[in-house]
Amino acid sequence: MVRAFQCWLTVYRRIWRSSIWSSILGPLFYLGALGFGLGSLVNKHGTASLGGVGYLAFVAPAILASGAMNTAMGEASYPVYGSVKWNRIYLAAQATPLRPGDIYRGHLMFMTMRIAMNTALITVYMAAFGATRSAWVVLAWPAATLTGLAFAAPIAAWAVLVKVDSTFAYIFRFGMMPLMLFSGTFFPLSQLRGWLRVLAYVTPLWHGVDLCRMLSLGHVDLPRALIHIAYLAALSAFGIWAGARTYRRRLYV
After folding, report:
1. Which pLDDT band holds residue 60 (cuts at 50, 70, 90)?
2. Whole-Å CA distances, 102 to 146, 190, 210, 234
3. Using CA atoms, how far apart are residues 213 and 210, in angstroms rounded to an integer?
4. N or C, which end of the chain has less CB nearby within 10 Å?
5. Where on the phi/psi map is residue 71: left (φ > 0), alpha (ψ -120 to 50), or beta?
6. Which of 66, 243, 73, 230 is nearest to 154 (CA)?
7. For residues 91-128, b (16+ Cβ closer than 10 Å) or e, as one string?
8. Predicted confidence band at 42 (pLDDT cuts at 50, 70, 90)?
9. Which residues of 33-61 are buried (b: 16+ CB within 10 A; e: fewer)?
10. How far from 1 is each of 101, 113, 130, CA to CA, in Å?
């Protein structure tokens, strides 16, 4: 597993420049545009529906959680598919003593590292912009990383079986975008109709957004936070369990 992780570190040393926009500059401009640009318009009409905080403080922890999701989906889709179909990293690893489960877990370790790197940077941006309201925000970083893992593990487990790369367009179009719009990211769930609100409560992103938001604002509801953590951890564990089996099915000869 460690050897597989080291392989992806070697790859990343060669391609890290290509991730500068998505990892460093993108979140900076995104947070600034929503928090200060759109936020200035929202704040003019009152912040009662946001819990009395400015729009920047409301949306920043949601961007942290959704950024973790975006990184996870990006790292767990095309790179996994490409490791079988394009650059064949998995097939090369298959010829070594590494088992399929080791290949999966090593790559998942790298995905988690990438998620942690990106969410750490967004957390720093939040503090620099004055978007945090509590020292509990330091725990929003591991909370966001767990949110990303809850997406990365099951998506990677599925992606290794995908036969056509165009399939990924569907999860980005019909998965990622609706989740960002209807998981309490940009506006409170109280603005949704009752049945849509219930659907939002079962999405992993809502659990991540709500957990990061309560930590950032300092309004920590311990029982609710534990439910969020348990949900995200269970989804991550399921993905790890499923991945060990799908990788064995795809790579075992």
Report:
1. very high
2. 20, 44, 33, 20
3. 5
4. C
5. alpha
6. 243
7. eebbeeebbbbbbbbbbbbbbbbbbbebbebbbebbee
8. confident
9. ebbeeebeebeeeebeebeebbbbbbbbb
10. 8, 14, 40
Q: Which two tokens stand for residue 138?
A: 């330091």
Distance CA 199, CA 186 (A): 16
Residue 134 falls in which region: left (phi positive, over 0), alpha (psi -120 to 50) or beta:
beta
Identify whether the C-beta of residue 115 lies closer than 8 Å to the C-beta of residue 149: yes
203 within 8 A of 186, measured Cβ to Cβ? no
Give the single-character DSSP code of 88.
Answer: -
pLDDT tens by residue, 104-145: 999 999 999 999 999 999 999 999 998 898 999 999 999 999
Q: Are 146 and 225 in contact (CB under 8 A)?
A: no
Amino acid identity, position 92: A
Handedness of CA 171, 175, 180, 183 (dihedral sign): negative
